[in-house]
Design brief:
single chain, Alpha-Beta Plaits, six-stranded antiparallel β-sheet, 4 helices
């Protein structure tokens, strides 16, 4: 069965814009998967330690026949191809971060995958690009509407849409 998956992209090391563009191309080449849409790129302040570069973020909409954990494995392989190393530091700098934000209407609580992505409702750098690539009445598995999450999301004056 085909599902729609929303993928959050982020990078703040190396050449973030280039890495996100290459990641979008790589996702479009995944088996049984195609890229339907990609949001604008956004610049945001880092969530973790403040002594790191700003992030470049986006959200992609994929259509896939892969199971959620299969997709996660494929996304982690793309991260590794871009020099991503997992050192255990949460919210630290990274060359590429690919997160499954939503996967169809599924709620997933697995040791390796939490969907909807935890704290997405507090992250403008996820919600605004997600709104660009989703339908206006997008509903999360728990029934919350994206439009309501946007209204409740904390204002982030550091979030800026980047010019193409």
């Amino acid at each position: 069965m085909t599902e729609q998956a929303y993928i959050g992209l982020g990078s703040n090391l190396g050449h973030p814009r280039q890495q996100l563009e290459q990641a979008l191309q790589a996702m479009d080449q995944l088996p049984q998967t195609r890229l339907l849409k990609a949001s604008s790129l956004y610049s945001s302040a880092p969530l973790g330690p403040a002594d790191q570069p700003r992030y470049t973020n986006a959200v992609a909409l994929l259509e896939t026949r892969l199971e959620p954990l299969q997709l996660l494995e494929q996304l982690q392989a793309i991260e590794q191809q871009h020099g991503r190393t997992r050192l255990g530091e949460r919210w630290g700098p990274r060359t590429l971060d690919l997160d499954i934000v939503l996967f169809g209407n599924q709620a997933i609580a697995h040791k390796d995958l939490q969907v909807p992505h935890y704290h997405m409702h507090l992250r403008p750098f996820v919600l605004y690009p997600l709104a660009e690539v989703s339908c206006a009445d997008l509903k999360l598995p728990d029934g919350r509407l994206l439009v309501d999450l946007l209204l409740q999301c904390p204002q982030d004056p550091s979030l800026h849409r980047l010019q193409p």
